[in-house]
Each structure stands twice: as C-alpha cells, then as structure tokens.
C-alpha cells in the first residue's frame, strides 16, 4: 500500500514539471489534473483482469415480489454475486443474457431448473426469477475512483505506481505553459509499461486455470426453497 495525499501529489507534480515556484497552474487546476490522471491509472489497474485491485463487497436483503435492486452509489464493475445461505455457505450466481430474460415465465417455467440469475441493468441489479423475500445477497464489485478534494484525501498507488499520476499531471501543467513535454511523455510511457508488466500475475504462485462454474449449483434448488 502506498497512500499519497492530494497535497503530496501537487508538490510532486510541481517538482516533476519544474514549476515549484510558479503558480501559472493554480492548485485548483492542478487538483483537476491529478484526479484525471488518477482515473487513467485506475483504469490501467482494473483492466488487469483477475487481479482484483480495489474490489469491495456490498450486501443486501431481498424483498418479496421485488426483482430489481439498486447498485451501490460508487459501483463501476461487477465481479460476482453470491446468494449467502448461512454464515459459512454461499452460492455463486450466474448472469443471464438479454435473450434469457423470460426463461422463468409461464408457461415455460420449470421448477426443476429453478436457479436464481442476475443482470446488471442501468443502475440496478435485476434477478430472474423474482427472488423470495429475506434472502441475503452479496455483491463483489470494483468501485469508481473517488476524486480527491481535501489536501488530506489519499489514493493508494499500490507499489509506487502513483508516479504515473505525478508524471501525467506534470505533462498537463507543461502543456498549459506551452513548454516541452518530450521527456515526460517518455517517462510516462516507461511507467505505463512497468505498471502493465507488474500489475498482472498478482498471485504468482497459482497459475491460471479453467473454473468449473457448475459445481456451485449442486443442491441449489433445495437451499433456495
């Protein structure tokens, strides 16, 4: 973990741009540059599929005859949905495709295939068939990057990767000043290559493998009823 405050980002960006004693770029402008650069770094890290940077969880309870539930306010990407049957047991739910939206409606409904499924639709999570009330659901998701607004607000650069933000913000400062940016562009390119190489293979001791997504469904019908 490498937490860096907004104030520290500004100082480092001004140093990198060689504009320490200049206020041609105001603090407010620089804050905007920094937040935009954080968004760019964030996208690089969450694009490392399977590495699970910044993953959060969110739990809620279903209500009877309600099939749609609001996603968390900071929701960006869904990683998975669990039906929690007890403190020690959970079932991984599967997503349904748009063409499957009516698969559990009469007269095609078949209780022998009673498996709850979900779909992200706008700002909501929709289930088919409509779940029973008082069922515990847990979402695993990647939140949106949060803008830093106070000087003490911080961002986790994981392993010094916040330098990407510093360089990118410095480039934006130089562009406004109409100063050369060639060396900073090269530094950003090198930093991006480093991040892409180092951010993948987070669990280097466990090779990638095929996942058996059907194994979670043994006994599902009895657990849900």
Tags for this model:
225 residues; alpha+beta; four-stranded antiparallel beta sheet; 10 strands; disordered C terminus
Explain how this protein is built.
By secondary structure, the protein is α+β, with helices and mostly antiparallel strands. The protein has helices at 6-16, 27-46, 163-177, 182-199, 220-224; strands spanning 3-5, 56-61, 68-70, 75-84, 90-92, 94-95, 117-121, 124-128, 136-143, 154-156. The strands form three sheets. A four-stranded antiparallel β-sheet has the order 2-9-4-5, with no helix packed on it. A four-stranded mixed β-sheet has the order 3-8-7-6, with no helix packed on it. A two-stranded antiparallel ribbon has the order 1-10. A hairpin with a 5-residue loop joins strand 4 (75-84) and strand 5 (90-92). It is elongated, with a radius of gyration of 23 Å. The two termini are 43 Å apart.
What does the secondary structure layout of this molecule look like, with pairings?
Elements: E1 3-5, H1 6-16, H2 27-46, E2 56-61, E3 68-70, E4 75-84, E5 90-92, E6 94-95, E7 117-121, E8 124-128, E9 136-143, E10 154-156, H3 163-177, H4 182-199, H5 220-224
Parallel strand pairs: 6-7
Antiparallel strand pairs: 1-10, 2-9, 3-8, 4-5, 4-9, 7-8
How would you summarize what this structure contains?
The chain has 225 residues and is an alpha+beta fold.
């Amino acid at each position: 973990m490498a937490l860096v405050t907004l104030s520290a980002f500004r100082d480092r960006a001004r140093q990198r741009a060689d504009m320490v004693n200049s206020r041609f770029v105001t603090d407010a402008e620089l804050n905007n540059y920094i937040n935009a650069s954080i968004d760019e770094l964030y996208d690089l890290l969450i694009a490392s599929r399977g590495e699970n940077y910044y993953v959060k969880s969110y739990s809620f309870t279903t209500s009877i005859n309600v099939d749609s539930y609001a996603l968390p306010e900071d929701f960006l990407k869904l990683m998975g949905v669990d039906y929690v049957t007890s403190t020690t047991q959970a079932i991984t739910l599967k997503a349904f495709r748009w063409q499957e939206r009516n698969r559990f409606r009469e007269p095609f409904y078949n209780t022998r295939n009673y498996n709850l499924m979900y779909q992200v639709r706008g700002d909501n999570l929709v289930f088919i068939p409509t779940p029973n009330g008082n069922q515990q659901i847990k979402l695993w998701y990647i939140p949106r990057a949060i803008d830093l607004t106070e000087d003490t607000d911080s961002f986790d650069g994981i392993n010094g990767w916040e330098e990407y933000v510093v360089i990118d913000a410095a480039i934006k400062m130089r562009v406004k000043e109409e100063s050369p940016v060639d060396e900073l562009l090269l530094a950003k390119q090198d930093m991006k290559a480093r991040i892409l190489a180092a951010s993948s293979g987070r669990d280097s001791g466990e090779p990638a493998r095929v996942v058996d997504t059907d194994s979670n469904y043994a006994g599902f019908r009895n657990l849900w009823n």
